[in-house]
Design brief:
With 436 residues, this protein is an alpha/beta fold. The protein is 32% helix and 15% strand. The strands form 3 sheets. The protein has a 10-stranded mixed β-sheet. A two-stranded antiparallel sheet has the order 1-14. Strands 7-8 form a two-stranded antiparallel ribbon. One of its GO terms (molecular function) is hydrolase activity.
Length: 436
């Protein structure tokens, strides 16, 4: 079906297929997430021949291990940002990791916004403040670059030689807060960190870039959605600017108790950290500020080309938004959340409905020729920075119509093909149709 998106027929959920659905979902977890284990089995296997063959096996194992080892990139503390009040939650300077480009990628840049949740009350923010998520003093001195950030031309053929930057996440509102809690000593300066770090990168060469990609996963993926048009505005019209949001499509969904756990959580974040002035004005002109922290209310108004990469059964959202502990006091969902084969009939129907909400959310978004889409039916969260899910070469990326994630993103960015792909769910009994 080429690059056109597909989705199941809009037929009623067939109960005779539920048992098959449960079994297939259990298999799905293995097929999407177990590539590393399979590779380990190959690496640890021993040759059955004599001494010379064993040496060859060891050499191959050593070479494979070296090839698989991710590039470790040192931290840069941006002390100059402090003068602009751009500081982490505890008042320390923001930070980033930078690996310069080479060859044909010398003038192309990836800017990756780190994810890592949010904080919505004093207790949660106090915990965050005393961790690497709230203090650059506590951050790792070097971190691995993998997946879309990899320097391997095999694993990351389209972006391996670009200038690659990861901006560390040390506020608590997806780089969008503005405020100061004097009583508790919390600096909510995500928007200032965003602005100061991007301006610094522009000053060290990014301003003259030919191609730029803003990316991030989870809370970083939400940050990409919130800042995509803002990012594009930093560049000249001649620069190709695009955005990739991985696992950032958080839904304003009803939880299993009939409430809206994530909406309540987001409302507290927006209020506590002063997010409202930094939300996209096209959204806040028509909706309340909490609604504008939800991507589904923002994506249709983004003018810059953007690609949404998401699992239809996003495991974080299933565990923390759809069936959080507070909405499940009896623990009825505990087994299902950790083992899909333990889900009963009604739980499977709720999971399927969640998937359908996600598909419905992107219908308008997918109408833009400049946008890209890859929604696969894995139980996953964040797929662009893990070698096993990013690259087919690295271990077997989830694929739609035989095209994996890295190839899909590359085809979209470079205009080789339109990519608007949505997996069939596992109750579609082979009757898929184009929706885009």
């Amino acid at each position: 079906m080429g690059e056109a998106g597909v989705v199941a027929n809009n037929k009623p959920f067939r109960r005779p297929l539920l048992l098959l659905l449960v079994l297939l979902l259990a298999v799905l977890v293995g097929s999407c997430c177990a590539e590393a284990a399979a590779d380990e089995g190959i690496i640890n296997s021993k040759g059955a021949g004599g001494r010379r063959r064993r040496r060859t096996s060891r050499r191959r194992t050593s070479a494979a291990a070296a090839a698989a080892a991710p590039l470790m990139v040192p931290i840069t503390i941006l002390k100059s940002a402090v003068d602009a009040g751009a500081v982490c939650m505890d008042g320390t300077p923001p930070a980033y990791h930078f690996d310069p480009g080479s060859g044909a990628g010398n003038n192309s840049w990836i800017v990756n916004l780190e994810g890592g949740g949010w904080c919505n009350n004093v207790r949660a923010c106090q915990f965050r403040k005393t961790s690497r998520r709230g203090s650059s003093d506590l951050m790792e001195k070097e971190i691995p670059f993998g997946g879309i950030m990899s320097s391997s031309p095999t694993d990351n053929p389209d972006f391996y030689n670009w200038n690659r930057v990861k901006i560390r996440y040390c506020d608590g509102a997806s780089f969008a807060g503005e405020g100061f809690d004097k009583e508790n000593g919390f600096y909510f300066r995500g928007q200032r960190i965003w602005d100061a770090t991007i301006r610094h990168l522009l000053s060290i060469g990014m301003a003259s870039a030919d191609k730029v990609l803003l990316t991030g996963c989870s809370a970083g993926g939400l940050a990409v959605i919130l800042h995509c048009d803002e990012f594009q505005a930093y560049f000249q019209p001649t620069t190709a600017v695009k955005c990739l949001a991985d696992a950032g499509l958080f839904l304003d969904a009803v939880d299993v108790s009939g409430g809206r756990s994530l909406r309540s959580y987001y409302s507290d974040i927006v209020a506590m950290q002063g997010v409202a002035p930094n939300l996209p004005p096209a959204c806040t002109a028509r909706l309340d500020t909490t609604s504008c922290f939800f991507p589904q209310n923002v994506i249709d108004g983004i003018k810059t080309p953007i690609f949404l990469l998401n699992a239809a059964y996003d495991v974080w959202q299933i565990q923390e938004s759809l069936a959080p502990n507070g909405a499940d006091p009896s623990g009825a969902w505990r087994a299902c959340k950790s083992n899909r084969s333990a889900c009963d009939t009604s739980q499977m129907m709720i999971l399927q409905d969640f998937r359908e909400q996600m598909v419905a959310t992107v219908r308008g978004f997918s109408g833009s020729r400049s946008n890209g889409l890859f929604i696969n039916s894995c139980f996953a969260h964040c797929q662009s920075e893990l070698p096993a899910t990013w690259s087919s070469a690295a271990g077997g990326s989830p694929a739609i119509q035989n095209k994996g994630i890295a190839k899909s993103v590359g085809d979209w960015y470079f205009g080789r093909a339109e990519v608007k792909a949505i997996d069939c769910p596992y109750d579609c009994d082979g009757t898929c149709r184009h929706i885009i």
